[in-house]
Amino acid sequence: MRATFSPLENNRIKLVVEVDDTEMSTAIDAAAASLAQQVNIKGFRKGKVPKQVLIANIGGIGVLRAEAIRESLPDFYARAISETKVDPIGQPDVNITAGEDEGLLVFEAEVDIRPEANLVGYDALRVTIPSPVVGDDEIEAQINRFRETDAVLEDVDRPIITGDLVSMDIRAEQVGSDAEPLEMSDFMYTVGSGSIAPEVDELILGLRAGEELVVTAASEPGRNVIYTMQLKQVKERILPELTDEWVEENTEWPTADEMRDAVLTQMSKMKVVEAQMSQRDAMLVALGELVLDDVVPAVLVDAEANDRMHDLGHRLAQQQMNLEQFLQATGQTPDQLLAAVRADGERAVKIDLALRALVKAEGLEATADEIDEELHKTAEAMSLEPAMLRQNLYDTGRVVAFESEVAKIKASKWLSEHVTFVDHLGIVIDRELLREDQSDETDE
After folding, report:
1. What predicted TM-score, i.e. pTM, was given to this entire model?
2. Where residue 50 falls among pLDDT bands split at 50, 70, 90?
3. In Å, how far are 50, 54, 170 from 44, measured between CA atoms?
4. Same domain? 308 vs 396
């Protein structure tokens, strides 16, 4: 088989494929064997019909050749993709130009190819991730959680502040609904918890016991709830003094200093792990955002979104849940779910295009040795012989896709070493902190 291609407009190419007589004969034999399993011919068992008898009974060699072309054309196209190393997206428009009845089979295939993105600013990319550094306020907050277990509540006669406990009678009424309002008496609310609505935590500050607070807040898209709260009593948590005696009696540590050191050590490990876990996704999303929207083909986004919906359906089936139940549990409408899945799909496509562009910009194409190493690892994971996997990639037209994945791994590693990681305040994070191993060490 011989395959060539020429570029067309708008990221589209034309493949010209010539299938030689040997390959066509193999395809005809395969079609004959397939038909022999399907047709009923008197005097012969299925699968045992001689080729010439089969040809005579189905209408001649032309019918068999047409069936062979129909069955084999996708395989011929896939192998042509591997031969030319083009990167098609979507389905091709195929036209047989010669050999449909006899002689050399020639066909053309026009198909869209993956566009190349132009990355600007990737070499100065700043990526925001959680800080691996523990702040003094975070340590104090964690220590206070221990102290709160032994806290005393005292009535206060002052304006409400964050952290106070407020006893209230509350009424919640959904706007535009015939449902009965929900009413609760002596409801204890911790100011700042957000368990009613964010607006409540903002507007309740500065009020006093005996006052009324009315807040309108969104409960779901297009729905509002009116909360009416009669503030009855305000209590303040009085924490015990952080002494060595209290620490020894109420915690696993003997002194306040050792407690603080232990909290710092544990929180530091957690913060570094959190930062490490967010590194890859954060930098890839940031890189993908450099790809302009008009570069992203809708066909790739559609395919990615369809794959994600299929995966979701499979996971739900494993949990014995259907899509309607999932929507109810997550409070989404079908349109909201589809919009979210499509947004995720577009983000994934942008990341893919960005990594491919980075490969080209930095010369990170996979070498033959790197491809071979990854192929052997993949084959081992799939319990296949490497030669079998290599042939399968060729026959299915996935050679370019596999080599691109190897190159994208290199690009991801390059990116992780060249981006600047910053925290939410824009402060540059020491890269050495992100390399630390946070696994527990055995005490000597």
Report:
1. 0.78
2. confident
3. 9, 10, 85
4. yes
Predicted local distance difference test score (pLDDT) of residue 51 = 81
Residue 443, in any domain of the structure: no
Closest CA to 65 of 112, 31, 96: 31
Question: Would you say residue 162 lies in a domain?
Answer: yes
Q: Could you give the number of structural domains in the chain?
A: 3
CA atoms within 13 A on the CB side of 376: 5
Measured between alpha carbons, how far is 384 from 226 in angstroms, rounded to an integer? 63
Q: What is the rounded end-to-end Cα distance, in angstroms, of the chain? A: 67
Q: 192-199, long-range: CB within 8 Å, 24+ apart, which pairs?
A: 192/162, 192/163, 196/170, 196/227, 197/225, 197/227
Convert the pLDDT of each residue in 141-178 to its tens digit: 999 999 989 999 999 999 999 999 999 999 999 888 88
Query: 4 is written with which tokens?
Result: 């060539």
If asked whether residues 232 and 267 sit together in one domain, one would say no
CATH code, 216: 3.10.50.30
Bridging pattern class, strands 126-128 and 420-422: parallel
Element (DSSP H or E) covering residue 19: strand 12-19
Q: What is the mean pLDDT of residues 371-379?
A: 96
Radius of gyration of the chain measured on its C-alpha atoms: 33
Indicate if 351 and 267 belong to the same structural domain: yes
Give per-residue burial for 108-128: e unless 16+ CB within 10 Å, then b. ebebbbbbebebeebeebebb
pLDDT of residue 221: 66
pLDDT of residue 444: 40
Of 238, 273, 290, at which residue does a domain stop?
238
Long-range contacts at 94-99 (CB < 8 A, ≥ 24 apart): 96/69, 99/19, 99/24
Q: Do the Cβ atoms of 208 and 157 come closer than 8 Å? A: yes
User: What is the DSSP-derived secondary structure letter of residue 428?
Assistant: B
Which pLDDT does position 442 carry in this prediction? 40
| Domain span including residue 229 | 152-238
Q: Are residues 168 and 21 in the same domain?
A: no
Q: With CA atoms as reference, report the closest residue to 351 among 299, 426, 264, 283.
A: 283
Structure tokens at 236: 């303040």
**pLDDT for 440:** 53
DSSP string, 32-79: HHHHHTT---TTS-TT---HHHHHHHHT-HHHHHHHHHHHHHHHHHHH
